[in-house]
């Protein structure tokens, strides 16, 4: 599978703290990749390294076949970047802003720009500084989508967008990503939105890559397990490898099987809980999976 963006053992630190620690992951062509992680996990740092806005301490990043440190203006013209709170020329009107961006990109699609302006209801004569946060985000998005970048890098793109616009935006991205040459990497705290959008998941925690996997396969190998005991549970018993994020409440024990395979699972249940009939097994949402994986690591590091 082709990759448009790939991190190779990248480490990065600000003064003493490591923001990325030997991180390797990829963004396949034709994919929408979600970059997830708790606050401070290193998501924005990773995206800035990909754009050569920050230099890594070690390792390297390949962007559209080029080392990110050697990107030339031609490569940059093939990448779109929008980040929450990014610097925009606030003194310009939307017309002036888009007019200023247009000549920078030879492949700028004026017809598509018109469609985006209409879809995002952008008032051309209004200065960027007089727009709401959501409207400013839409203007920034229009300014990168209009040149149809091959790689779209979005850092918290949903903040400030109302539910209707989020829906339109997500449909638009899904349409664009049908082209094999296009890929999106999106970092977001909004896991419900990302769940609808992403087909590849990268999870960062404390600067380390925890998961880098196709979303369907990832969800297929995680299961929420619930066991009702005949008696009150005093403490959680030792569990099988891969059973994470265990919690008990009264007679109920819940945990996540992070490497689910039914024969192995049933054998482990018989061995560990011989007195219990078959437990309840449910699929997980991406949000539940995120919480289980991150809290499992928090317990590990607290221990
Ligand atoms: N300019 C900076 N100077 C010093 N430390 C920084 C700087 N920028 C980020 N960090 C630190 O690097 C780590 C990773 O930060 P980063 O912004 O990449 O995380 P993030 O996953 O994007 O977080 P969030 O979800 O909160 O936006 C954090 O510990 C953060 O405090």
From TrEMBL:
SUPFAM superfamilies: P-loop containing nucleoside triphosphate hydrolases. The keyword ATP-binding applies. The keyword Cell inner membrane does not apply. This is ABC transporter ATP-binding protein. Keywords: ATP-binding, Nucleotide-binding, Transport. It comes from Luteolibacter ambystomatis. GO terms for molecular function: ATP binding; ATP hydrolysis activity. Residues 5-231 form the ABC transporter domain. CDD domains: ABC_DR_subfamily_A (cd03230). It comes from the Bacteria.
